Amino acid sequence: MAEALNFEKAFDVEGGNFQNAGNVSGQIKGILKELGVSTDIVRRVAIICYESEINIVSYAKRGTITLSVTDEAVKIESKDEGPGIADIEMAMQEGYSTASAAVREMGFGAGMGLANMKKYSDHLIITSELGVGTCVKMTVMNFQKMLHPDLPPFTL
Amino acid sequence: MQLDVLVRELGLKVHCAGRNLGREVTGGYVGDLLSDVMANSKEGDIWITRQVHQNIVAVASLKDLAGIVLIHSCEPAPDTAAKAEAEGIPILVTDLPAFEIVGRIYALIHP
Amino acid sequence: MTLNDVKEILEADVLVGRDQLGKPVKTAFAADLMSDVLAFAKPDSMLLTGLTNPQVVRTADILDITAIIMVRGKKPTEETIKLAEELKIPILSTKYILFETSGRLHARGITGCIVKVGGET
């Protein structure tokens, strides 16, 4: 029987660096594919990862995105050193954005980031402290595996 | 329908990654808001946009899009072109606005 | 073609302007960035967009846009609807994405409202 899957890796994200924005998400996607994670889960994690990365780049000084993969779930933790979020409920609303005009012209700041992160994960916890930073923990469950424990991990 | 057919039929200018024009186009997505494209585009879509900064390559790569069509004769920024070339994401250019080029692409994909 | 035909083709909901469905329509402009709408959209054209805020109605008014078609199933805010009613600008909402919406209308003879950037219509 195969060993239980247990993978973890952390990636640094530099605030303000739009040049590299998306690199970490690309790396994470590659890793998930190599681990044999199902296409559906890879797609959802790509979205929540990308939005997390763009948020760090758009608003924070720096941040870390940590990937954890087990048979049961893929977890993404996005933690940054930045301004923090004044009103989390408002920030979660679609269309609400505090992005600058320059950032919006690039096609960011549509106010969909947190909303998409919530939509595409099965579980999301967000904590924030003004002047310190924000932490978002997201889980994408492998329901297939949990319903049929005899199946090898991450089959479609 | 393969990308090179679209290029030929619509007179698109090939800017980057011409080696991957054999890629199959299964649909299309038009939009300039990256969160929207990330959430709603599908693998194999041809993406029509006017965004030229290099984050479009990250999005196209993450979503396995067939390629990018830039409208209004927009040219990709130098670092965008380099990244697209490196990642093999074709970037094509048209002088038409979005509605027109989409209409023509749509007609070719849905004859 | 009339706005009513557009409604049928896109299976759209009419949110503002039930009384204006007889309006003739010939051209369309698709955009998600307000700055593009301001720069390129022409009078009497339909605007196909994912934007749902009141500014899009103000812009439509300034540019004499004939109707706003909101795509991707997006619904405008109350504020947006009120403003559109006041300024008498029809708003339709379709579940189709911008690609599909543009494709369908183009297939039925609607043309882009500018041919090329920098050129004349």
Short description:
The complex is a heterotrimer of chains A (156), B (111) and C (121). Chain A has 156 residues and is an alpha+beta fold.
Provide an overview of this structure:
The complex is a heterotrimer of chains A (156), B (111) and C (121). Chain A is an alpha+beta fold. Helix content of chain A is 35%, strand content 28%. Chain A contains 6 helices and 5 strands. Chain A is elongated and about 50 Å long. Chain B is of the alpha/beta class and 111 residues long. Chain B has a single domain (3-109), classed as Udp-n-acetylmuramoylalanyl-d-glutamate--2,6- Diaminopimelate Ligase, Chain: A, domain 1. In chain B, α3 (55-62) packs parallel to α4. Chain C has 121 residues and is α/β, with parallel strands linked by helices. Chain C contains 5 helices and 6 strands; from the N terminus they run αββαβαβαβαβ. A 6-stranded mixed β-sheet of chain C has the order 1-5-4-3-2-6. The mean pLDDT of chain C is 91. Chains in contact: A-B, A-C, B-C. At the B-C interface, β2 and α5 of B face β2, α5 and β6 of C.
Topology of this protein?
The complex is a heterotrimer of chains A (156), B (111) and C (121).
Chain A (H helix, E strand, L loop, with lengths): L5 E9 L8 H12 L4 H21 L2 E9 L2 E9 L6 H4 L9 H5 L7 H8 L2 E7 L3 E9 L1 H5 L9
Antiparallel strand pairs in A: 1-2, 2-3, 3-5, 4-5
Chain B lengths: L2 H8 L2 E4 L10 E4 L3 H7 L4 E5 L5 H8 L4 E4 L7 H10 L3 E3 L4 H12 L2
Parallel strand pairs in B: 2-3, 3-4, 4-5
Antiparallel strand pairs in B: 1-5
Chain C lengths: L2 H8 L2 E4 L10 E4 L3 H7 L5 E4 L4 H9 L4 E4 L7 H10 L3 E3 L4 H10 L3 E2 L9
Parallel strand pairs in C: 2-3, 2-6, 3-4, 4-5
Antiparallel strand pairs in C: 1-5
Task: Give me the Rg of chain B, rounded.
Answer: 12 Å
- Chain-averaged pLDDT of chain B: 95
Count of separate DSSP helical elements of chain B: 5
Q: In the CATH scheme, what's the topology name of chain C?
A: Udp-n-acetylmuramoylalanyl-d-glutamate--2,6- Diaminopimelate Ligase, Chain: A, domain 1
CATH C-level class of chain C is Alpha Beta
Tell me the Rg of chain C in angstroms. Answer: 13 Å
- Across the major sheet of chain B, the strand order is 1-5-4-3-2
- The fraction of residues in strands of chain C falls at 15-25%
What is the level 1 CATH name of chain B? Alpha Beta
Main beta sheet of chain B, described? Answer: 5 strands, mixed
CATH architecture of chain C: 3-Layer(aba) Sandwich
- Taken in chain order, the helices and strands of chain B follow as HEEHEHEHEH
Using the alpha-carbon principal axes, give the shape of chain C: globular
Q: What structural class results from the helix and strand content of chain B?
A: alpha/beta
Helix content of chain B: 40-55%
List the secondary-structure elements of chain C in sequence, H or E: HEEHEHEHEHE
Distance between the termini of chain C: 19 Å
What are the segments of chain C in which pLDDT stays under 50 over at least 5 consecutive residues? none
Question: What's the CATH topology name of chain B?
Answer: Udp-n-acetylmuramoylalanyl-d-glutamate--2,6- Diaminopimelate Ligase, Chain: A, domain 1
